[in-house]
Amino acid sequence: MLPLQLNIMAASLSGLFFLLHILTASALDSDPEQAPLQQRPHFTGCVSTNMETFHCRWNVGGFQNLSEPGDLRVFYINTIPLSAPPKDWSECPHYSTKRPNECFFFKNHTVIWTNYRLQLRSRDNAVLYDEISFEVQDIVQPDPPVNLNWTLLNVSLTGTYYDVMLSWKPPQSADVEMGWMTLQYEVQHRSVSSDVWEVTDLVKSTHRSLYGLQTNVNHEVRVRCKMLAGKEFGEFSDSIFVHIPSKVSRFPVVALLIFGALCLVAILMLVIISQQEKLMVILLPPVPGPKIRGIDPELLKKGKLRELTSILGGPLDLRPELYNKDPWVEFIDLDIEEQNDRLTDLDTDCLMDRSLSSNCSPFSIGFRDDDSGRSSCCEPDLLSDSNASPLHSPIPNQMLSKEPPCQTGSKSSSGDQSFTTGEHSLVSTLREAMYTQVSEVRSSGNVLLAPEEQTEVEKDTNKDVMAEKGKEKKEAQLLEIEADSKDYTSKLNAWNMNPELSTGDIGEPFQTGAENSAALSPPSHHESDTVPVSTLPPAPVYTVVEGVGRQNSLLLTQNLTPGPHLTIPKMVPTPGGYLTPDLLGSITP
Amino acid sequence: MNRAVLLLSVVCLVVSSQPIADSQRLFSIAVSRVQHLHLLAQRLFSDFESSLQTEEQRQLNKIFLQDFCNSDYIISPIDKHETQRSSVLKLLSISYGLVESWEFPSRFLSGSSAPRTQISPKLSELKTGILLLIRANQDPAEIFSDPSTPQVPPYGNYYQSLGADESLRRTYELLACFKKDMHKVETYLTVAKCRLSPEANCTL
Prior knowledge:
heterodimer; A: 589 residues; alpha+beta; four-stranded antiparallel sheet; B: 204 residues; mainly alpha
């Protein structure tokens, strides 16, 4: 069976081959049939460069046997209007010798705005291969412009771009001077690395500028022209190359600037972070907390009212010295409401007695409040208002501040701790309201308070209190206090002498100074006077209870020096009464 | 006396130079206007030609060979030599005739975006300008007849709209003739201008 199958296969294969052969043969056969149609001699085009002459070219196509000169002939007929149309076709006036298959028409054979018909015939005029018709003005393709050159206009600041001005001349063949031809020019340029030509708009002038060319890049420029409203362009001129080297160094300016800016920012950040606290102080100065003499600011926080009231209620000299070191600390003056309330009735008496006694009360009770807006007690409004309890305390102060220093009440010896009766009574009553000493506890349960004599001490203590409480003015006033800490009387006298010192004289520190200096003498003066002194020695403010007596009386110790030792600054003569910082340093113990 | 004569001559020169300056300005204006018209005509023709089929184009081309433009009756120089020989006045008058011959038929020029409405008034303006130039370059002694030719152009053919083929052919003829005549006028005016004022950058 095998040989049979082989035979069949061979037959089929041969059949296939035969079919293929036929197909290819037919394909091959088809070509020669179409070849003559495609390769007939034909005109390739007629061109005029100057609108005075023109030439026509043709191609022999596939008919290689006709490539001989003379095998093909060109005949033309030119119809001139309003003249007799030519009857015969004329042959080409000149077959070009320089180029084969070209017919050249001289000037005398060329007419514009007329119709030309050309025919391509065989040698024997038997076969017409091709025919074209045209008018000369439609086939104008000017020669390329000549003398193309460039000049540099400017270079950009960064040196990366520059502008050039191109200039050229019209082609020689085109008679532009006479106006016979009007030309339009087109410039094309590209960088040598690119394949795409950049085309510019048509211009009528023979110069043109190119903007934005890159430095360090070789540019190729060429130009061509055409008739105004013509169809076809002429040939391109020869290319010229434009090259400008960049002068700027390769130093990256931008990178430097960025780096510099970043460094600045980093430095600024470092400065800010390192000096953060100082900056915060400068920008947002801290608000000083409340400073009350003898009271820890911690107590002023919420929830510690009891301790605060107890401390405030207690005598001044028991308060710790917290702000000793800082002489410039401003302390808040406190108005103790309780004490004011206590003195209400007494105040009215004070006010009432005011008419009797001299106006100047030699001491001030309670705490001075220089900043209060309270008016003087001399005003009728206040006199009528007896219940103006909070106002009472500065009233005597005000009185004292405004009234001239009274000498009547202040006349007292150094040892004399008494005042004029009126004042004394005032003082005594006030004193009794503020502080009092328990002298004896009776069996009935009554507590006997210390009599007048002790008021001196009280006054003394009060004076101490006033002396202690400090604004800066008080500090100044404390100067006059004598170095002898035990001689309270002189101090007291000083206070008495000069009511202005003790009270809230606002803004008159120099006067107080003057007064204080003046006060120096009076105490001495008064000390010389002999006035009966109270018998009782100055009792301390506080007395320690030694024990309870048989009759349930409290036994108080006496002759005790006050617990808290008052720190009285030494007297230092101040120039004009002012206290300078350096002097203050020497003053503080 | 001598000074007076000198002064008078200078004044006369200045006065006489005025029309020359005006003439140059008018020429420049006229040339620019006709160039614009020529460009317009070329655009119209190319648009029309591009809308035709290739086969139609070939046929029309052949047909065109047999017909003539209506302005063929105006004798005009047809080569450079003849143009160079013609006087400025002759060139101007021929231009005037050509423009005038198209004043009316330009309304039938078909074109996209209604350019036909622009051509007629522009032709009229150009005609006026050429007339002014003629007056400016005309010798007062010379009595010149009306530039319009006595021959009546065969406008009739262009008014009758026949079949579709005819209209297509007529449009093609109109556009081709218009383009040719505008080129003629442009060439004549440019030659005349460059001849009268050689310093006026004719080498541009």
